[in-house]
Design goal:
Blueprint: E1 2-3, E2 6-11, E3 16-24, H1 35-44, E4 63-71, E5 77-85, E6 89-90
Parallel strand pairs: 1-6
Antiparallel strand pairs: 2-3, 3-4, 4-5
Length: 92
């Protein structure tokens, strides 16, 4: 699906409709030292082993793409949950 590069939408900070630039959200690198990762490592290792079955096959073939909209006036980012699709493309 193709998505427009610029769109006019509501900015919660400005309180009115302003032009926004669109980009695709990409998750950052996960930290190995984060508390959730440390707890998970604890569960997997040691006596007793894996607490839940390892995910072998995933059911879904698509993801819900998140679109980041940045206000051109104030610079605030607003995220918008997109529809489920294989590929999201921002038009130039």
């Amino acid at each position: 699906m193709k998505f427009v590069k610029e769109m006019n939408t509501f900015c919660p900070k400005c309180g009115k409709h302003t032009p926004h630039t669109a980009s695709i959200y990409k998750a950052g690198k996960q930290r190995a030292s984060a508390i959730g990762a440390r707890r998970h490592e604890e569960d997997v290792h040691g006596y007793g082993g894996q607490k839940f079955p390892k995910l072998v096959r995933t059911a879904k073939t698509t993801k819900k793409q998140i679109i980041k909209l940045k206000c051109k006036v104030c610079g605030k980012f607003v995220s918008r949950l997109g529809i489920r699709l294989r590929k999201l493309e921002i038009e130039q």
